[in-house]
Amino acid sequence: MNSKTRSLIILMLLPCLMVYVILALIPLGFTIWLSLINMWRPGETHLHFVGAENYVKILTDPMAMYSLRITLIYTVVSVAVEVLLGLVIGALMYESISVRRTLTPILVIPLGIPPITVGLIWRFLFHPDFGAFTYWLRTTTGLNINYAIHGDQAYALTIVMDIWQWTPLVAFIVLGGLLAIPTEYVESFMIDGAGFFRRLTHLYMRMIRSNLVFAIILRFMDSFKVFDQVWMLTQGGPGTATQYVSIFLYRLGLISWNLSEAAALSLIILLIVIIVSNVVTKIIKR
């Protein structure tokens, strides 16, 4: 490659690099700087360097640790169920054209609804007094759901809501990977008499590892920062039962105006996501 070609490549990449610097590196640098000073509100004039003090405050704050803990549990449970269900649904759609034609329009519906609208829909469906699904459960099973009072019900409801909305995405990612498998492999398994679950565990899962890694990391990052639908459904309540880390971060930074500690917490979240993503990638691709 001569110098002229190299210069042309750099010139062609320059607009993308500028966008990346403006939208990613500059905000990241500002967040790091903000986490190392003592800014409590916009326009603060008496600023001084405090080092790791904001990180220590966050890591020793019981409410911050509580929010991180329930967010991790929420993320692990929802992503695990979504991947398992998405794997089975994607495999069924791959093996049957009729199933694919039937499920595709149904599965697209949750993906086409904005998260904030999803929260509003579930809020009305499970309203303690006039919710349609709440009424059906009460009249058919005697189960009385009141997520506005019972924290465990609210917590479980947010997990089910996430599973309902994002399992179709995992199913389509799985389906895309399965469609790339040579048909000879599937036919050989069928000739050997392998059942559906044997094909699923011994063939499909091994052939679409990259798709599974992508789906798990994508859903982990998205679930870990869940905000819109949970805010519309519970606003972090009752009490702090569903105060996930994004809601705690919102209240810390934009209501209490503790900007420096909020910046420190956001960087801790970023570090957790990076570590988990690398661990998942190594485990699945081992």
Task: List the keywords.
286 residues, mainly alpha, MetI-like fold, 13 helices, transmembrane
Q: Approximately what portion of the residues adopt beta-strand conformation? A: under 5%
How would you classify the quaternary structure?
Answer: single chain
User: Helicity level, as a percent range?
Assistant: over 70%
Number of strands: 0
Question: Could you name the CATH homologous superfamily?
Answer: MetI-like
Major sheet characteristics: none
Ends distance: 36 Å
Count of folded domains: 1
Elements, N to C (H/E) = HHHHHHHHHHHHH
What is the CATH architecture assignment?
A: Orthogonal Bundle
Q: Report the average pLDDT across residues.
A: 88
Structural class label: mainly alpha
Question: How would you sum up this structure, described in words?
Answer:
The longest helix is centred in the first third of the chain and has 34 residues, at 62-95. The chain is mainly α. 76% of the residues lie in helices and 0% in strands. It has a single domain (52-284), classed as MetI-like fold, CATH 1.10.3720.
List the helices and strands and how they pair.
Elements: H1 3-35, H2 53-59, H3 62-95, H4 97-112, H5 115-125, H6 132-140, H7 151-178, H8 183-191, H9 196-207, H10 209-224, H11 228-233, H12 245-255, H13 259-284
